[in-house]
Design a protein that fits this description.
The protein contains 5 helices and 4 strands; from the N terminus they run ααααββαββ. It has 248 residues and is mainly alpha-helical. Bound molecules: zinc ion (ZN).
């Protein structure tokens, strides 16, 4: 059986109150709205980044296609120029000149086909470039929102950390000189009972589990020596007897 001065048992309730507030602040630290917002923005940015990677790959493929289409056109164009030169020079037999003329006709048709291909590829390239530009500005918007949410989170954390530091100082002062066995029991019970290790007995009610104890038990608790540390029959927490309310 643990014993500790009744005064220490009552001070333990102050320590418990500080510990409860610290636990509430720790909970608020973990559940800041800014944290959810940051996580949501990270997912959105990852989506946009995946699209940007796909878009850049498509663009580099299209740029290669444009280069190739351009080279194809250039090849036909220079061959036509050479043919035209030979026609202009007027050398060769009539049959040669006729062959060159018909090749020129074919080359002209081929050139216009290839130019159409090149134009079509360039149009696709331009469309992809504007898609990428849109993705880039979407990413910039998300990054700005992220910076805002991070600043909001950091500001909120700074306030909470300041509160925690102040609570910590109070707690050290309140716990200073408290019966060591009582504190040890309190810490163990607090760990087992969701952060609440000690509670007041108010009337017949344990403020830890909020249950009414039966009158016989309450009478026995009230009669027990003051330094005896009593545990709640229902929840096992340290049950601290408060001064009797003044009668009159
Ligand atoms: Zn209880």
């Amino acid at each position: 059986m643990t014993t500790a001065p009744l005064e220490d048992q009552r001070r333990l309730l102050d320590v418990q109150a500080l510990d409860t507030r610290a636990a509430q602040i720790a909970h608020r630290r973990r559940t800041l709205p800014a944290l959810a917002r940051i996580a949501e923005l990270e997912v959105r940015l990852a989506d946009v980044d995946a699209s940007r990677i796909a878009s850049r790959t498509a663009l580099s493929d299209l740029r290669r296609e444009v280069t190739k289409a351009d080279a194809d056109v250039e090849q036909v164009r220079s061959r036509a120029a050479r043919d035209q030169g030979r026609l202009d020079a007027g050398t060769g037999t009539a049959k040669d000149l006729q062959a060159i003329t018909s090749e020129l006709t074919a080359l002209t048709r081929r050139q216009s086909e290839l130019e159409e291909v090149e134009l079509e590829v360039m149009e696709r390239l331009e469309a992809h470039e504007s898609v990428l530009a849109e993705l880039n500005s979407a990413a910039a918007v998300i990054e700005a929102q992220q910076a805002e949410a991070v600043a909001e989170r950091d500001a909120a954390l700074a306030v909470l950390d300041e509160e925690l530091a102040a609570l910590d100082i109070d707690r050290v002062a309140k716990a200073d000189g408290l019966d060591a066995g009582l504190l040890k029991l309190y810490d163990r019970l607090r760990e087992q009972s969701g952060g609440l290790g000690a509670a007041a007995l108010r009337g017949r009610r344990c403020e830890g589990c909020r249950l009414e104890l039966n009158p016989t038990d309450v009478a026995a608790i009230r009669k027990a020596p003051p330094e005896q540390v009593v545990l709640c029959e229902e929840c096992g927490r340290i049950l601290v007897r408060l001064p009797e309310p003044a009668k009159g």
